[in-house]
Each structure stands twice: as structure tokens, then as C-alpha cells.
Amino acid sequence: MPLAPKPADFPRIRGAVKFYQVASVITGTLLLALCAEMLLKYLGGLEIELAGPSGFLALVPAGTTTAVNLSTGILIVHGWFYVVYLFSDFRLWSLMRWPFTRFIVIALGGVIPFLSFFLEGRIAREVKAYLASREAEAAPVVAPTTPTVEATP
């Protein structure tokens, strides 16, 4: 029998789901920007330069950036935010008491393009439905009351 989340953890799980959803969208967006940057760099031989002599935002040949190299910036920001994404994944995974393979699948969302968007919707729906069903089971059953009518003489 798999372990189930504790009812006392339900408020923390709701917070973990929200944090996971935000981290998932940001990580997925940064991953797509990273993929576009890699395609520009390795297929087109271009890098993105910010505030250089070519303009505020310009594509320059790889290795010739003289200002802020936005290509490297995207790489660094995605890498650090992936760590935040892994933390959100771990927090949700541990509170929900899922098997370790589930943690690995969710963690892959930060390295496989578009997977984080797909998983974000699916995981959030699943967790919210689970919490709603568990709370419905735990709610006390109240018998309908009929008003008593007294006869007046």
C-alpha cells in the first residue's frame, strides 16, 4: 500500500503546487530561450549581444561580442533557475509521498523542451483533484434536519 499524504500537510501541499507551477513555467520558458540561443549559436554562428555597438539588442557573429553576452546570460539564468525548479519538484514530491521515479520524470521537465508545460498542467490538476477528493472523504456527513413544528392549541 503506497503512502498517502497527511491531512495536516494539505495546506503545505497547496503552497507547493503553486510554487511548482510558477517554477515550471519560468523554467520551461528559459529552456525554450536556451534552445533558441543554441540553435542561433551552433547552426547560425550568431550570439545575442545586449547594449553593444551594433544596437541595444543585436545578433553578432559568435565570439565577437564586445558588450553583454546575452547568450551566456540565458545559459546561466536557466541553470540556476533549474535548481529552483528541482527544489519545487522535490518539495511537492516529498509532501505527496510519490515514488522516486515520479521525481525523476518531473525533474526531466526542466531539460526536455515543452515537457515542463505539459507536466505543470497535468501534475497541478492531479494534485488538486486528489486534495479535493480526500477532503470530501474526511468531511463529516451531516444528516438533513427537519424543522419541528409545534401545534398551538
TrEMBL record:
InterPro entries on file: DUF3817_TM (IPR023845)
Phylogenetic classification of the source organism: Bacteria, Bacillati, Actinomycetota, Actinomycetes, Micrococcales
TM ranges: 20-44, 56-80, 100-119
Stored PANTHER family: MEMBRANE PROTEIN, MEMBRANE PROTEIN-RELATED
Keywords annotated in UniProt: Cell membrane, Membrane, Transmembrane, Transmembrane helix
Subcellular location: Cell membrane
A GO-annotated cellular component: plasma membrane
This protein's name: DUF3817 domain-containing protein
DUF3817 domain location: 18-125
Pfam families, A to Z: DUF3817
Domain of life, per lineage: Bacteria
Membrane topology category: Multi-pass membrane protein
